[in-house]
């Protein structure tokens, strides 16, 4: 496992153990959103005319530091949806990304679209928690999980009606991690080792992702119609974008501009 990710995963394991002391499974199951029917991101991304944009609310990151300390989660996420985003992604990790579960709850209350809980999932408890705050999709990062963990966590999410985005960085991760309970495969263009971004990663892996999985290209994307057009031609239906929007003073407008320029 890469350095940053190893550090994040170690911290996350401690955090989850603490959370388990504070909240029981019953507490999570007794929430308003736990009973709600999830909204399908697969449907949203594959609908004819979908922008394919999964617009992310992200205040900070280990690679960039503070990206946006001001933006309101409700204003930004509802602005993204009004701009035509197909889905939302909300960071809920506090230590490294400055997010929290309250952000996702607020986004949920304000929007009727699929929402990805962006966090470092290593335990079923986090999946129950994702459902309890109204998330529709969870992320499983191949680089920090064994194939058995991915299989078990994906099956557990599916049993709750949640969809699973499996994130990979290279062919080896893809081939060892792909599981039938996964719905979408996300290719992260950002190397976790060097933080370097290369969209070639998405182009190289496209043909290796079986057709039944919705392909998502993640990170380092900006409004370059020729690149987005080529990704679409390579089969990508989802474009996960954070920084390009969040680094501006009006993320929703940046999202609208991206959609207009890459249509
Ligand atoms: O801000 P960007 O470069 O548009 O990237 C968004 C998203 O892909 C990135 O935030 C991300 C991809 N995988 C992750 C895993 C955990 C935290 C964050 C991420």
From TrEMBL:
CDD domains: IGPS. Pathway: Amino-acid biosynthesis; L-tryptophan biosynthesis; L-tryptophan from chorismate: step 4/5. Keywords: Amino-acid biosynthesis, Aromatic amino acid biosynthesis, Decarboxylase, Lyase, Tryptophan biosynthesis. Coiled coil: none annotated. One of its GO terms (biological process) is L-tryptophan biosynthetic process. Pfam families: IGPS. The keyword Nucleus does not apply. Residues 5-255 form the Indole-3-glycerol phosphate synthase domain. Its EC number is 4.1.1.48. One of its GO terms (molecular function) is indole-3-glycerol-phosphate synthase activity. InterPro entries: Aldolase_TIM (IPR013785), Indole-3-glycerol_P_synth (IPR045186), Indole-3-glycerol_P_synth_dom (IPR013798), RibuloseP-bd_barrel (IPR011060). It catalyses: 1-(2-carboxyphenylamino)-1-deoxy-D-ribulose 5-phosphate + H(+) = (1S,2R)-1-C-(indol-3-yl)glycerol 3-phosphate + CO2 + H2O. This is indole-3-glycerol-phosphate synthase.
């Amino acid at each position: 496992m890469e350095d940053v990710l190893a550090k994040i995963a170690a911290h996350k394991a401690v955090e989850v153990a603490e959370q388990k002391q504070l909240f029981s499974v019953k507490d999570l199951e007794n929430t308003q959103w736990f009973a709600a029917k999830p909204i399908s991101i697969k449907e949203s991304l594959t609908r004819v005319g979908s922008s394919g944009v999964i617009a992310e609310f992200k205040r900070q990151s280990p690679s960039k530091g503070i990206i946006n300390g001001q933006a309101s989660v409700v204003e930004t996420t509802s602005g993204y949806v009004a701009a035509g985003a197909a889905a939302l992604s909300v960071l809920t990790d506090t230590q490294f990304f400055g997010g929290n579960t309250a952000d996702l709850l607020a986004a949920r209350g304000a929007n009727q679209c699929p929402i990805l809980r962006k966090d470092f999932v290593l335990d079923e408890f986090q999946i129950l928690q994702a459902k309890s705050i109204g998330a529709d999709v969870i992320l499983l990062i191949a680089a920090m999980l064994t194939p058995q963990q991915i299989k078990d966590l994906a099956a557990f999410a599916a049993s709750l009606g949640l969809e699973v985005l499996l994130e990979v960085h290279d062919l080896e991760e893809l081939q060892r991690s792909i599981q039938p309970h996964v719905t979408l495969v996300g290719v992260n263009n950002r190397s976790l080792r060097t933080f370097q971004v290369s969209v070639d990663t998405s182009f190289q892996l496209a043909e290796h992702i079986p057709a039944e999985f919705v392909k998502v290209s993640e990170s380092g994307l900006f409004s370059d119609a020729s690149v987005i057009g080529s990704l679409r031609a390579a089969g990508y239906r989802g474009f996960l974008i954070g920084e390009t929007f969040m680094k501006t003073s009006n993320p929703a407008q940046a999202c609208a501009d991206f959609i207009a320029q890459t249509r």
